[in-house]
Amino acid sequence: MKQIILIVSLLLEGMFLYGQSGKPMSQYPSPMRETVRAHERVPQGPFSGYHYKIKALFPKPIDVYVPLKTTKSRKANLLIHFFGGSHVVPYAAEHYHGRLVAVTVNLGAGSSVYARPFSDSTLFNRLLDSVQSVITENLHHDIRFNHILVSGFSAGYGAVRALLGYGQSFSRIDAVLLLDGMHADYIPDRKTLAAGGKIDSAAYENFLNFCREAVKKHGEKRFLFTHSEIFPGTFVSTTESADYLLNMLDLHAHPVLKRGPLGMQQISQVRKNHFEIMGFAGNSGPDHIDHLQGLSYFLNWLGKL
């Protein structure tokens, strides 16, 4: 079992190192491997709920998971998660503080792989309709979705950014969770801020529009972004992305030192109303995977915002 977990972890780390475009980068995150923090991992099962496949919408089949506690419900929240988590997402659904249906979309490496399908503005609604159909067909009753939650790990943020660019999907998404995934290009290409480069700010506009709704006192959107200290060098890091958002929102992170989920170490935090960014220690591959493994914790935290 430990060998399987290690192989999956290494594969995910490899996908991350392939960066934005799916092509190898000339500079990678630190090759160091963390040997101090626990890097605990959630169990791979067994799970008591039901898995259903939807094959027609994306280049690869997606998984719909309905926990046993949700099967008789007439109302539940819906989670759509992009990249990784074949067992982490069902685990999060099982431990969610409420009723949840969870969808996992795995399409490969590179943010463009996740953004590209949503160039079709009708895809999101067709995805929702397909989830409803497969539930009705197998459970023989409808489940109405109270809230729609969208999460992306690493390159999965590409799908989230694309979805927030359409008014219809923007209005239907109630909450966004980004797990160590929000990037942009440098201008000129690969010239870091320290070297005099700038950030391609256009990459953040969709996120900023959503964040501005979340920071409102009586806003109806929720936004949680977690980031590590990994510095890719060839594209904007998640730390730099967090700093950019905060600067545009006139907010400031403050230092903290406390234990996060599964042995993670939180080192910064900023929160305003329904908006929050959490910074965590670590610049190695396992530190990156920690954010995905913490999905259950962060998903429930999102519900408290």
Roughly what percent helix?
A: 25-40%
End-to-end Cα distance: 36 Å
How would a crystallographer describe the biggest sheet? 10 strands, mixed
Order of helices and strands: HEEEHEHHEHHEEEHEHEEEHH
Spans where pLDDT lies below 50 across 5 or more residues: 1-27
Total beta strands: 12
How many helical elements? 10
Query: Structural class given helices, strands, pairing?
Result: alpha/beta
Strand coverage percent? 15-25%
Order of neighbouring strands in the sheet with most strands: 1-2-4-3-5-6-9-12-11-10
Estimate the global geometry from the Cα principal axes.
globular
**If you average the pLDDT, what whole number results?**
90
Radius of gyration: 18 Å
Question: How would you explain this protein's 3D organization?
Answer:
There is one protein chain. With 305 residues, this protein is α/β, with parallel strands linked by helices. It has ten helices and twelve strands. It has helices at residues 2-17, 88-94, 111-115, 123-139, 157-163, 167-172, 205-214, 238-249, 285-293, 295-302, and strands at residues 50-54, 62-66, 75-82, 100-105, 144-153, 175-179, 186-187, 198-199, 222-227, 254-259, 265-272, 275-280. Strands 1-2-4-3-5-6-9-12-11-10 form a ten-stranded mixed β-sheet, with helices on both faces. It has a two-stranded antiparallel sheet with strand order 7-8. Strand 3, helix 2 (88-94) and strand 4 form a beta-alpha-beta unit. Helix 1 (2-17) crosses helix 9 (285-293) and helix 2 crosses helix 10. It starts with a helix and ends with a helix. The model is unreliable at 1-27 (pLDDT under 50).
